Amino acid sequence: MSEQTAPDPEIANRGPADILKALILGMRPKQWTKNLFVFAALVFTNNIPTNFGQPEKWHNLGLAVDAFILFCLISGGIYLLNDVADRDKDRLHPVKRKRAIASGRLPWKLAAVAGVIFLIVGCAAGYTVNMKFGHTCAGYIALQIAYNITLKHQVILDVFAIAAGFCFRAVGGAYAIGVQNSVWLLLCTLQLALFLGFGKRRNELTVLGEDAGSHRKILGQYSLGLLDQFIAIVLAGLIVSYALYTITSPTAIQHKFLVVTLLNVMYGVFRYLYLIHIEHKGGSPETILLEDRPMQVNLILWFAEVLIALKVTG
């Protein structure tokens, strides 16, 4: 049985506002940046409205925003349920013990009920967007259940399951606005997500050291050398795939300046490698995105270049 700590009197006396704040924090809003992948199809199909005389594009933007909100609600519910299940282990973790449920700021029973409600409401609302998007939401929830029951305990498959979650977001974004999913988009999304996933595992090994296996059993089946090889393979595939997309895909043939964005992608992955190896970050990709200024500037430039390239027909 794991260690139990006596409830803090200050925590026990928290009011409804404090509990609501803890509930929102328990949904991990910082990680909602992952849900930005739902906008990928909107961007690369040139559906970003540039003036008020484009009602169809504004409608698609609204659908993409709806998809983003629903994925935030669903993923927030999943985070709550995950933290409820892992609350005892999280109390022994140097970082996770500060989470709302593990620290006692959010009652675990309330979190469990809220998590289930968020999943049901989010999935049901997904079907109001359209049937395919609703199915995608249901599939994403099924993937997360499978991950928590068995996949997170399977070496390599654990990271592939995490990467599949990003692909569900990209697929859902395309279904939401009624456009065809691009194989190139899904391939690049998968490889980028694998890179982030293996980078996260590497950071966990670095931070936890010899105790890594006791905090997360699957970490005992990885090593820094093995993860570095995985990362190198995935990065090579990511850069080549994105390069081919920006040169040979139907979108690139119509918008030839898209190849310029390859430089931003290369800088982004190299910067991330620097943060992993030199600054020992990478355990939380969303934190890097929110805090690392060079990554922020690079992402803004990439987005601006994509929009400009899609407006220029060469």
Give an overview in words.
The protein has 314 residues and is an all-alpha fold. The chain has 16 helices and no strands. The longest helix is centred in the first third of the chain and has 31 residues, at 55-85.
Q: Helicity level, as a percent range?
A: over 70%
In terms of structural class, how would the helical and strand content be classed? mainly alpha
> Strand share of the residues?
under 5%
Number of helices: 16
- Most strands sheet: none
Radius of gyration, CA atoms, in whole angstroms:
20 Å
Low-confidence stretches: 1-12
**Global mean pLDDT:** 88
**Straight-line distance between termini:** 65 Å
Structure summary, number of beta strands: 0
Overall geometry: globular
Order of helical and strand elements: HHHHHHHHHHHHHHHH
Please give a quick description of this structure:
The chain is mainly alpha-helical.
Based on the model shown, name its key terms.
single chain; 314 residues; mainly alpha; 16 helices; globular; disordered N terminus
Outline the fold blueprint.
Blueprint: H1 9-12, H2 16-26, H3 40-44, H4 55-85, H5 87-90, H6 100-103, H7 108-129, H8 131-149, H9 157-177, H10 183-208, H11 212-215, H12 224-248, H13 250-254, H14 262-277, H15 285-291, H16 293-311
Helix pairs in contact: 4-7, 4-8, 4-9, 7-8, 8-9, 9-10, 10-12, 12-14, 14-16
